[in-house]
Amino acid sequence: MAVIKPSIPKGTRDFSASEMVKRNHIFNTISAVFKKYGYQEIQTPTMENLSTLTGKYGDEGDKLIFKVLNSGDYLSNIPTDKLESRNSQLLISEISEKALRYDLTVPFARYVVMHRNEISFPFKRFQIQPVWRADRPQKGRYREFYQCDADVVGSESLINEAEFVLIYHEALTKLGLKDFTIKINNRKILSGIAEIIGKPELIVDMTVAIDKLDKIGLDGVKIELIERGFDENDIEKLMPIILLTGSNEQKLDSLRAMLSSSETGMKGIAEIEAIFDFLNLLTSNKQINLNKSLELDITLARGLNYYTGAIFEVKTNEVAMGSIGGGGRYDDLTGMFGLSDLTGVGISFGADRIYDVLEELKLFPQSASESTKVLISNFDEKAEKYALPLLQTLREKGISAEIYPSSAKLKKQMTYADDKNIPFVILIGSDEMETGLLSLKNMKSGEQQKLTSEEIASLLLA
């Protein structure tokens, strides 16, 4: 039998034990903040019905959905003309009824509709699970990656949006990031802009183009706008809005003057002002300073079609990386599943990108690379029998401990501790068993001291 060279699909990754400790540090930090704000955890299946996902992310998003082939002989009942057409789009509905989830928001909307009789509204949930996109893999962009989402449905209050800004700020600060930007905009403002230039029907084309400003530059945006149906006169009206500068308050003042004739645009401005007012009240104790991190960015559009109000995007300024979070308000997303007029708003953290950022900046705490706190040496059968009761005592006190599983030379055991980044080793020889004073070695400093088992436990718990 031929030997197959092991490999994994492009855009996916294995995670070692040490990497999992770091990933769980991210998940635990974010979930603790979610819980602090009253969000409860749920999970949804890896696969959804293809019909649940399609039509929710725009044409470009639909192309990135991973389809799952039907079980069995899925070609046997397909009409010959469809098979001979060699048209994959015609065949998809015949050979695939399921797909891997593209994000966590649409499955959440489906969940809410299916479980509406069990849910108390407003319903605040968070979800930390992988999603899949058939995208081109590159730095910071994977085909399989984790999202950490929080959403609230059944509440129109803009307090929710204000709290999401605080959730982003608190979670990223606790992860060690110091220089990041939480960008905010409102899709109603973008609709108002499309109205005042006389092209309300091209709102999606406009947002897709200006959302690429960071990637293709101003000239690139102008070219794309022309290609999407805008003329030079439209672009001349757009440029002062796209290039707005100044503080958040100054930008709002400018927008009020520019969008005064658009009722939709003025409503979007009022919503942004309300969010800022709530944030001022929530941070009135001066413990949180958002002046440097919160930015009103009119070019922020977010590509997903279902956003209808405030939209968010978060970027770190310390590493060259795409967005590490985003979200927004989506009025009536559940209407696609038969439950109308249920507004929602949510955000997401890109856990894989955050991992890469923390790794590059060396921000993972030392404890995030430790799986075991202390290793007990094993030199012979007598020492092993002496060590086992101590091992269990340490574990019962909540200390992560292990014994080297068989007698071996000291160098081999120390190498094992180093490889696993175990910070302490208890050495038990004949002297230690006679006196009850055990040798505790600090693997980082090399310091070694004689202590009782109780003293060792106290030191490890400190």
The CATH C-level class name of the largest domain: Alpha Beta
Label the overall shape. globular
Q: Name the poorly predicted regions.
A: none
Query: How many strands, which pairing sense, and closed or not: the largest β-sheet?
Result: 8 strands, mixed
- β-strand percent reads 15-25%
Count of distinct strands: 16
Compute the average pLDDT.
91
Summed up, the helix count is 18
- CATH topology name of the largest domain: BirA Bifunctional Protein, domain 2
CATH superfamily of the largest domain: Bira Bifunctional Protein, Domain 2
Label the CATH architecture of the largest domain.
Answer: 2-Layer Sandwich
Radius of gyration: 28 Å
Within the largest sheet, what's the order of strands? 1-5-6-11-10-9-7-8
Distance between the termini: 56 Å
Sheet/helix structural class: alpha+beta
Q: Share of helix among residues?
A: 40-55%
Overview of the structural elements:
With 462 residues, the chain is an alpha+beta fold. The protein folds into 3 domains: 12-177 and 346-369, Bira Bifunctional Protein, Domain 2 (BirA Bifunctional Protein, domain 2), CATH 3.30.930; 179-311, BirA Bifunctional Protein, domain 2, CATH 3.30.930.10; 372-461, Anticodon-binding domain (Rossmann fold), CATH 3.40.50. Helices cover 43% and strands 18% of the residues. It is built from 18 helices and 16 strands. It has helices at 17-36, 50-53, 58-63, 80-85, 88-95, 105-114, 159-174, 187-196, 203-210, 213-227, 232-242, 248-258, 263-282, 351-361, 381-396, 410-419, 430-435, 453-461; strands at 40-41, 47-49, 67-68, 98-100, 123-132, 144-153, 180-186, 294-296, 310-316, 325-331, 343-350, 374-376, 401-403, 424-427, 438-442, 448-451. The strands form 3 sheets. It has an 8-stranded mixed beta sheet with strand order 1-5-6-11-10-9-7-8. Strand 15 (438-442) and strand 16 (448-451) form a beta hairpin. Helix 1 (17-36) runs antiparallel to helix 7 (159-174), helix 1 packs across helix 14 and helix 8 runs antiparallel to helix 13 (263-282). The longest helix has 20 residues, at 17-36. It is globular, with a radius of gyration of 28 Å. It starts with 16 loop residues before the first helix and ends with a helix. The model has no long low-confidence stretch (mean pLDDT 91).
